[in-house]
TrEMBL record:
Protein name, per record: NOL11 protein
Subcellular location: Nucleus, Nucleolus
Keyword field contains Transcription regulation: yes
Biological source species: Donacobius atricapilla
InterPro entries, sorted: NOL11, Nol11_C, NOL11_N
Residue ranges of domain Nucleolar protein 11 N-terminal in the record: 1-289
Gene Ontology terms for molecular function: RNA binding
Keywords: Activator, Nucleus, rRNA processing, Transcription, Transcription regulation
Cellular component GO terms, alphabetical: nucleolus
Main location class: nucleus
GO biological process, one term: maturation of SSU-rRNA
Domain Nucleolar protein 11 C-terminal residues, every copy: 410-672
Length: 674
C-alpha cells in the first residue's frame, strides 16, 4: 500500500472468469484462485504466466476459499461441502457431498479453534436463513435455523470466535444489529439437524442525531466495537453522502463517524487496525485505534466536532493520513505515581484534550509566521521517534509546500533537503513536494527524493528523467549535487584535459593484466574503447543514477519512455552503455561508490529504453554506431561467459580434489582441461 505499485499481475485467458476471491496460503506463500467455478490454480509470486501454473479441475463448483494462518486453506463448495486444500489435492476429482438442498449460500467465514479449522456459512431458502457450522478435519456438521422476523430481513453478516463460542452479528433491514451466540459442539463426529432455532438479541439500533444509519457493510473491530458503512436517512430521505461509523457495543453508543467524499462499492474490510474501502478506482486505507473508556466515549458523544480519541481518521478530502500528534509535555501520572485512582482518572481526562491530530496541529499553525512554521517543524524532526512521527512530518511538509505555492518568493530549500535526507518519508506522504522541486528546479532535492522515496509514480520518474537530460552540464556545475555515486569511477575532465578514472581491484589494473597474460584482451579492450569517456558531466551522471535507483513497474513506465525525445533517448542510452562497459571491466561487475547503480539496474533500464525507442533509434543515423557497438559488446560478453560455462565442470572437479588432498603432503599435480 505504501509503495502504491503492483508487485505482481496475473491474467487468465480470454473467456475465462475468476469466480471467487484469490487468497494466499500463509504456510506455503502461494496464491490460490478458482476460475470457471471448478478450475483450481496455485502459483507463487515469481511465476509470471498463470496459464503455466498448477492446475486441477474439481468435481463441484467452488463458492469460496478461506485461508487460515495456522490451519491452511479451506474450500467451501456451492453445495455446502467443505474440504481442506491438502485433502482436496490428493484427489481433485473426489465426490463432494451436497449438504444443502434448494438453499443459496449468502455468507461464510472461517476461524481456528485450537488446532482445528472451523467454517461457518449461512444459507437462504425463501424467507428463512440457516446457519451451518463445520469442522472438516473432524467430519463434524451442525445445522441451525435463524429466528425468523417478519418485519425485517438480514442484509449482511460478520462473526468472531471466542471461548468456543461463535458470535454472529447480523445487520438487518430495520437498521438494527442483532447478536446470535452459537456454542461449538464438542462431539468429534456427527451431523446435527435443523431442529434448534437460534434466537437473536438486539445489540444496537443504528440511530444518531435524529436519523438512522442504513448500513451496507459490517465488520467487527474487537469485542466492544464494530464498524458500519452506510448512509444516513431521516423520514425516508437520504441525508448527504456515505458515512463510516464506529459503534461501541458495550455502551450502546456511537463512537465516531466520518462522511466520505466519494461513493464506495458498499464493501468494508478491516485488517490490523486499518480500514479498506474501494472508491471508484481508488483503494482508501484509513487507520484507526479503539479504546474502551466510558468517560471518553461520553465526551465524544457530547461533542462530535471535537477531537476523536478513538479514531485517527484519514483526511478523506486530501487523501492524506491524519495521525495523532502527542504533546511532548510529561504526563502528571509519571510525575506523581502515588496518586489515588480518582486523581489519576481526573489527570488523564485533563491531559486528553492536549492530544491533537496532525490536521488540527497544522490548522493551528495556518496563520503563523514563516519562522514559527520552520521552528515547529525542526522541533518535530528532533522529537523522539514515535509510530506517528513520519506521517505527522508528511502532513507538515504538505502544508509547507502549499505555503510555497501561495507565496512564490518563499522556498525553504535547505529545510526541505534536510527533511528528505534525514527521514524515511515517502511520495504518498508529501505528494506535492517533487512537483514543487521541479518547478523550482531544485535538482538536489529531486535527487534525494528519487534515492529515498519508495513509491514515486512512474510519470513523476519520467518527468525527472526528462528534466535531468534536458538541463545542460554548464547549468549544473554551480549546483550542489551529491556525486558520491559517480566520483569513484566516472571519467571527468579537468582544465580541458581528460582524466581516465579506472576501477582497480586489489591493485590489479588492466595494463598489468595485459603485460602478464598473452591473451586476446586487446580485442576486448578495443570493444570497451567504443564506450569512450562519459557522455555526460559529473553532476548529470549523479542525477541519472538517482533515476536508476527509483523503483518502477515496467508496464506503467514504458508508455512514458516512448514519449522521450529522440536525442535525449540516445544520450541516456550512451550513458547506460558507458555504465555497462564500466561494470564489465572487472570480475565483480559492481561499481564503487555510495548509491552506485547495480548491473541489474543498468541492464533493466537499457532493455526498457530499447523497447520503448527501438524503432526511433533505427531511423536515426547518429544511433546506428551506438547500437552496433552495443551489439558487439554484448555478443563478446555472451561468448566469454559461454567459454566459462564450458570449464565449469573442470573447476568444480578441481575444487573437489582440493578438499580431498591432505594438507601435510607435498605433491605436484597436472590437471588436463579438455
Amino acid at each position: 500500500i505504501s509503495d502504491q505499485k503492483p508487485l505482481g499481475c496475473w491474467s487468465v485467458k480470454h473467456g475465462q472468469i475468476l469466480t471467487c476471491p484469490v487468497v494466499c496460503n500463509f504456510e506455503t506463500h502461494e496464491y490460490i484462485a478458482v476460475h470457471d467455478k471448478r478450475v483450481l490454480r496455485i502459483w507463487k509470486n515469481e511465476d509470471i504466466n498463470l496459464d503455466k501454473a498448477f492446475k486441477a479441475t474439481l468435481s463441484a463448483d467452488v463458492y469460496r476459499i478461506h485461508s487460515l494462518p495456522l490451519g491452511g486453506p479451506v474450500v467451501l463448495f456451492k453445495g455446502g461441502g467443505v474440504r481442506t486444500l491438502d485433502v482436496l489435492l490428493e484427489a481433485p476429482q473426489q465426490q463432494i457431498e451436497h449438504v444443502i438442498s434448494g438453499e443459496v449460500i449468502r455468507w461464510s467465514g472461517a476461524f481456528m479453534e485450537g488446532q482445528q479449522p472451523v467454517l461457518i456459512f449461512i444459507t437462504q431458502k425463501d424467507v428463512e436463513f440457516f446457519v451451518y457450522v463445520q469442522k472438516p478435519k473432524l467430519n463434524s456438521l451442525h445445522r441451525y435455523r435463524l429466528e425468523y422476523q417478519k418485519s425485517a430481513k438480514p442484509m449482511c453478516f460478520t462473526a468472531y470466535l471466542t471461548d468456543q463460542t461463535v458470535t454472529l452479528l447480523s445487520l438487518y433491514s430495520n437498521d438494527c444489529v442483532y447478536q446470535v451466540l452459537i456454542p461449538l459442539q464438542q462431539d468429534t463426529e456427527g451431523k446435527g439437524k435443523a431442529n434448534k432455532i437460534l434466537s437473536k438479541s438486539l445489540l444496537l439500533h443504528l440511530a444518531m442525531s435524529g436519523a438512522v444509519l442504513r448500513g451496507t457493510s459490517l465488520v467487527v473491530l474487537d469485542k466492544d466495537h464494530i464498524a458500519v458503512l452506510g448512509c444516513l436517512y431521516a423520514f425516508g430521505k437520504r441525508l448527504g453522502r456515505e458515512s463510516l461509523t464506529i459503534w461501541n457495543t458495550k455502551f450502546k453508543i456511537l463512537q465516531t463517524s466520518e462522511e466520505l467524499p466519494r461513493a464506495t462499492s458498499g464493501q468494508l474490510w478491516c485488517y490490523e487496525e486499518k480500514f479498506f474501502l474501494i472508491q471508484g478506482k481508488v483503494l482508501t486505507v484509513i487507520m484507526y485505534k479503539c479504546e474502551t473508556s466510558l468517560a471518553a466515549a461520553v465526551g465524544k458523544l457530547k461533542d462530535r466536532a471535537g477531537t476523536s480519541l478513538f479514531l485517527d481518521w484519514n483526511t478523506v478530502e486530501d487523501e492524506e493520513l491524519v495521525v495523532s500528534f502527542q504533546s511532548q509535555k510529561p504526563v502528571a501520572l509519571k510525575a506523581e505515581p502515588k496518586m489515588n485512582l480518582r486523581s489519576k482518572r481526573r489527570t488523564v481526562a485533563e491531559e486528553q484534550p492536549e492530544t491533537l491530530t496532525a490536521g488540527k496541529f497544522v490548522q493551528n499553525l495556518k496563520s503563523a509566521p514563516t519562522f514559527v512554521w520552520e521552528t515547529e517543524l525542526r522541533a518535530l524532526m528532533a522529537a523522539a521517534p514515535t509510530p506517528d512521527l513520519l506521517a505527522t512530518i508528511g502532513c507538515m511538509v504538505t502544508a509547507l509546500t502549499d505555503r510555497c505555492k501561495k507565496n512564490p518568493k518563499y522556498y525553504p530549500q535547505s529545510l526541505l533537503q534536510e527533511i528528505v535526507g534525514t527521514h524515511d518519508l515517502s511520495y504518498s506522504l508529501c505528494p506535492d513536494l517533487m512537483a514543487l522541486a521541479l518547478e523550482k528546479k531544485d535538482m538536489h532535492l529531486l535527487q534525494l527524493c528519487l534515492e529515498r522515496f519508495p513509491d514515486i509514480p512512474e510519470e513523476v520518474t519520467y518527468i525527472c528523467l526528462k528534466a535531468f537530460l534536458s538541463i545542460s552540464d554548464a547549468s549544473l556545475r554551480g549546483i550542489d549535487i551529491d556525486v558520491d555515486s559517480v566520483i569513484c569511477y566516472i571519467d571527468v575532465q579537468l582544465d580541458g584535459e581528460e582524466v581516465k578514472t579506472e576501477i582497480v581491484e586489489n591493485g590489479f589494473s588492466a595494463e598489468m593484466e595485459q603485460d602478464m597474460c598473452d591473451t586476446k584482451l586487446p580485442k576486448e579492450s578495443h570493444l570497451r574503447s567504443h564506450a569512450g569517456s562519459c557522455p555526460v558531466g559529473l553532476q548529470k551522471a549523479a542525477l541519472l543514477n538517482a533515476v536508476l535507483h527509483s523503483a518502477y513497474t515496467e508496464t506503467f513506465l514504458l508508455p512514458h519512455l516512448k514519449n522521450l525525445p529522440a536525442q535525449q533517448a540516445i544520450l541516456f542510452l550512451r550513458y547506460l552503455y558507458y555504465l555497462y562497459v564500466k561494470c564489465s571491466e572487472k570480475v565483480n561487475i559492481t561499481l564503487p561508490g555510495i548509491h552506485s547503480p547495480t548491473i541489474s539496474q543498468i541492464m533493466d533500464w537499457m532493455c526498457l529504453l530499447l523497447d520503448a525507442q527501438f524503432t526511433v533509434m533505427l531511423m536515426l543515423p547518429e544511433a546506428k554506431e551506438l547500437l552496433s557497438n552495443l551489439h558487439k559488446f554484448v555478443r563478446a560478453q555472451v561468448r566469454f561467459y559461454s567459454e566459462l560455462n564450458k570449464i565449469e565442470g573442470s573447476l568444480q572437479e578441481l575444487e573437489r580434489l582440493n578438499h580431498l588432498r591432505e594438507s601435510q603432503t607435498y605433491s605436484i599435480e597436472v590437471l588436463e582441461i579438455i
